[in-house]
Amino acid sequence: MFRHDVLCLGDVPWSRAGVRTRHLLGRAARDRFVFYWEPAIHGEQGEPRVELDPGEDGVMIATPHLPFGLDPELAEAAQRALVDDLIATQRLVRPVLWYQTPHALGFTRHVRARAVVYDCLGPSWDQEKEAHLLRRADVVLAAGHALAETLRPRADHVHVVTAGIDADPFVAARGGGATPIDLARLPHPRIGFAGAIDDRIDLELIDALAARRPDVHVVMLGGVSGDPARLPRRPNLHWLGHRDDAARPMYLAALDAAILPFRRDDAHRTCAPHEVLEAIAAGLPVIATPLRDLAKPYAEAGVVRLAACARTISTAIDEVLADDPHARLARADQFLAERTWEHAWANAWQKIAAVLETRATGVHMRVTGVSGASGVSAEAAPRRRRAPARPR
How many Cβ atoms are within 10 Å of 255's Cβ, its own excluded? Predict the structure, then answer.
């Protein structure tokens, strides 16, 4: 019986892969070999090569190294040869090709795959290559509802697979434990955000809210991308910097409400932020700007309040702080029960498995039609289990 090994063509190095990618591929690797092909590194002397390193949760990271100055056509040909070598040496018989970027088509279009998956994480700037991938893909996974809507006019087999959460650490921190010292000095009410402070964050909105509500302390917890000097400064606006994953539940539990102040311009209209799930799991009332992926399913389920400007957010703060906390926690727990990473992976693989099953049945029918009921193709013969790949 085939394990359906997976070759994922990544859009970023594994070290920068999002939590959704890490969790989905980590679960895939529990009962099959999974390789994550990173974008090529240019700049080495000598022949093109692939470096293999064991990543997290059993995923093997394949990093192609190409000579500096190689023109695009030769670089593509070199990667094509490296992919062929990986498939041969690791004995990947028709793997599932899992694309996270359409740019990998150029050096993998020739690979015979059991199924082709396009796991779309965001809008592609190369619409022509993406159109080719959408036509070739057997399954298209979209990381959010808004993103799926942009894909469906060009593909009729798009499925939404959003981020999940390991909620237990956040649930355990609800309403108990010591308050972090840098929050204990701040009076209530405290509202805050925990996540990367990058170009998704509407800094003007944060500044306007802090100015409108000097009685509310706004806590921004996360590493800052870009120049810190651009951050607005007010006595009730606190930029605490990065805290590790283990500390984040404790910080969220010390807040009175969470705010998700995401920009609503074209570049961020389709983002599906996972920060919302952590805030919900921590038991907080959540106020967010009205992105499509926050309206559905979060606002529909009553676990997020949408507000577009400093004035409406200010009103929402007073309303959510007066809500019944028991009813809010009941809604949160019911919502989170189907947002685990196990559910996310099961949802994704169910769509892929349907394609694999259909094709396996088709192979069996063709074989038995030629060879009789006992006919078995060489492709369907059991493989000897190989040892996990080793770095070289």
Answer: 26
Which SS3 state, helix, strand or coil, does residue 365 take?
A: helix
Contact 118, 133 (CB under 8 A): yes
Report whether 238 contacts 210 (CB < 8 A): no
Q: What is the mean pLDDT of each run of 10 residues along the chain (392 residues)?
A: 86 93 96 96 89 91 94 94 97 96 96 96 90 96 92 93 93 87 94 92 97 97 92 97 91 96 76 85 96 89 95 97 94 94 96 90 42 31 39 40
Question: Smallest Cα–Cα separation from 6: which of 28, 24, 30, 23?
Answer: 28
CB 201 within 8 A of CB 263: yes
Q: Which residue has the tokens 């493989």?
A: 383
CB 17 within 8 A of CB 37: no
Distance CA 348, CA 18 (A): 16
- Label the pairing between strands 190-194 and 217-221: parallel
pTM for this one?
0.85
- Residue 131's closest CA among 159, 102, 108, 100? 102
Do residues 243 and 254 touch, judged by C-beta distance below 8 A? no
Residues in the chain, overall count: 392
Task: List the structure tokens of 200.
Answer: 């998704």
C-alpha–C-alpha distance, residues 282 and 250, integer Å: 9
Closest to 161 measured CA to CA, from 60, 274, 242, 282: 274
Phi, psi of 371 (to 5 degrees): -105, -5
The partner residues of 115 in beta bridges, in order of sequence, read 96
How remote is the C-alpha of 303 from its chain's centroid? 21
Torsion angle, CA of 335/337/342/344, rounded to 10 degrees?
-20
Going by C-alpha positions, the residue among 272, 35, 253 that lies closest to residue 141 is 272
